[in-house]
UniProtKB/TrEMBL annotation:
Keywords: ATP-binding, Kinase, Magnesium, Metal-binding, Nucleotide-binding, Thiamine biosynthesis, Transferase. This is Thiamine-monophosphate kinase. NCBIfam families: thiL (TIGR01379). PANTHER family: THIAMINE-MONOPHOSPHATE KINASE. Substrate binds at residues 52, 260, 316. It catalyses: thiamine phosphate + ATP = thiamine diphosphate + ADP. It comes from the Bacteria. The keyword Lipid metabolism does not apply.
Amino acid sequence: MKEFELINRYFKGRGITRRDVNLGIGDDCALVTVPQNCQLAVTTDTLVSGVHFFDDISPRALGHRALAVNLSDLAAMGAEPTWVSVGLTLPNISQQWIEEFTEGMHEIAEYFNVQIIGGDTTQGPLTITICAKGTVPEGKALRRGGAKVGDWVFVTGTLGDAGLAIESRKQGLTIEPEHLKYINNRFDYPTPRVAAGQVLRGLASSAIDVSDGLLADLEHILDMSQVSASINIENIPTSDAMRSSLSFEEQLPYILSYGDDYELLFTVSDDNKSMLDLKLRQYGVEASCIGQIKSGEGQIELLHHGEKFNFEQQGFEHFAKEQV
């Protein structure tokens, strides 16, 4: 199978067709219509074998994961996902592999009403690059730089499961089979908080998705907002799988420093705090208050039941260490 046969068979004409796509796959560019009074949100992520995913990941999971991590960026901005372009580099073409990969990608694209409108295929080491686009009402996008002193710090879902999945594969940690299946799914099939991001428009003062670790991503908010924060580590939400597998002290590196959870970390003013739970529960999303914004210049104070707690491990950063 050659390049254009691959495109025609597995991408062109598959998945949903949005009315705002004037011209999709097949020409030099796609043409889309951006709704009136909306801004275009654009994000790009590259996933490299051995860095962002294990070599033995199932193709279907990889297709899901590649798109999900980009949709998570759109969620963090409060944007509605609309269109994606896919850059796919393959060492060779296996029809079974590409069928399963595109199946995983089309499944999540259809769930979030996203159309694949173009991209590129080439030969080389396995790499997937996604450029995802979305729309957000003009002036309503969530930003990292809006946190104010007195705002409350929240996070959706639970943290640390993806990191525990990574280390269980690397180190062979002993984890009960039902918990192992759960954490592996959290890593392989992350759930972008798209609905929650749109709910947070008008409620949250700042937001980011947890991709590089809680502390590292919180630092981005603090740096952009020119504030500090105190975090109560006992309030950070964890799953049954995490609590059953590790002691509290053993959990800390996973919940504080590991990324890949793709939950939303955000700040909310005292005035908006009471509305938050009601609005998020309509979409089946829970959020936990884990701290508060303080004055200062980017410092994070960790507290454990009111006492200062020291923790030095940092989050993921490219060119600093390997991911998987």
